[in-house]
Amino acid sequence: MEVNIIQDEKLSVRDIMKIADVCRATVTRWMDEDGLPFVRIGKTRYTTVPVFEWWTKVDSQDDKPCQED
């Protein structure tokens, strides 16, 4: 699924942390290792609401305890 950062409501890593009640390391792992699509604008990573909803439905998560925030 493609991230359309122009038309869709965007979510930053911090937004996803709040929505999913997980730490930053978990969100970046989802992006780097588990296939959560994202775009990088400067140093900030974004995905969109439709992409995040799609990804959570197709990918079961292994929510490991956080080591850092």
Task: Name the poorly predicted regions.
Answer: none
Oligomer: single chain
Number of H/I helices: 3
Largest sheet: 3 strands, antiparallel
Summarize the amount of helix as a percent range: 25-40%
Shape: globular
Can you describe what's shown?
It contains 3 helices and 3 strands; from the N terminus they run E-H-H-E-E-H. The protein is of the alpha+beta class and 69 residues long. The chain is globular, with a radius of gyration of 11 Å. The protein has helices at residues 13-20, 24-32, 49-58; strands at 10-12, 39-41, 44-48. Helix 1 packs across helix 2 (24-32). A hairpin with a 2-residue loop joins strand 2 (39-41) and strand 3 (44-48). A 3-stranded antiparallel beta sheet has the order 1-3-2. Helix content is 39%, strand content 16%.
What descriptive keywords fit this protein?
69 residues; alpha+beta; three-stranded antiparallel β-sheet; 3 helices; 3 strands; globular
Summarize the structure.
With 69 residues, the chain is an alpha+beta fold. Helix content is 39%, strand content 16%.
SSE layout and pairing:
Elements: E1 10-12, H1 13-20, H2 24-32, E2 39-41, E3 44-48, H3 49-58
Helix pairs in contact: 1-2
